[in-house]
Write a structure and sequence with these properties.
The chain has no helices and 10 strands. The protein is mainly beta.
Length: 118
């Protein structure tokens, strides 16, 4: 298992210290259409994020196609939560993109890490 915390970003993403985060920092964005993505070779991918009362929704794209909307809202703050995961039967080259929806009143979406199983 390899934990990846460096990925590509588009838009404004801010680093924020969180003692519970992988590497002690998360990156978060609040603007609609801010993107974080990872291209990888593997058979499984997971997006690790924080769930909280101020967390919003994100659109998930796998290999360039929309898959689902993920809502990170929770009345209690939980770090290191798998917000989305996808697996394939064999290893291959794929991409995962997290796009901030900009949810009214709770627009923040964060990326703690991407976890890839090869």
């Amino acid at each position: 298992m390899e934990i990846l915390s460096e990925l590509g970003y588009q838009g404004t993403w801010t680093s924020l210290y969180r003692s519970f985060a992988y590497g002690s920092y998360i990156k978060y964005a609040t603007a609609t259409n801010a993107k974080a993505w990872l291209s990888f070779s593997g058979r499984s991918i997971a997006w690790v994020a924080t769930k909280s009362a101020t967390s919003g929704r994100a659109w998930i794209y796998v290999d360039g196609s929309y898959v689902q909307t993920v809502d990170l809202y929770s009345t209690t703050t939980y770090g290191k939560r798998v917000a989305f995961s996808k697996s394939w039967s064999t290893s291959g080259t794929h991409s995962l993109q997290v796009v901030v929806e900009g949810t009214s009143g709770r627009p923040a979406v964060d990326v703690d890490a991407f976890v890839v199983l090869r």
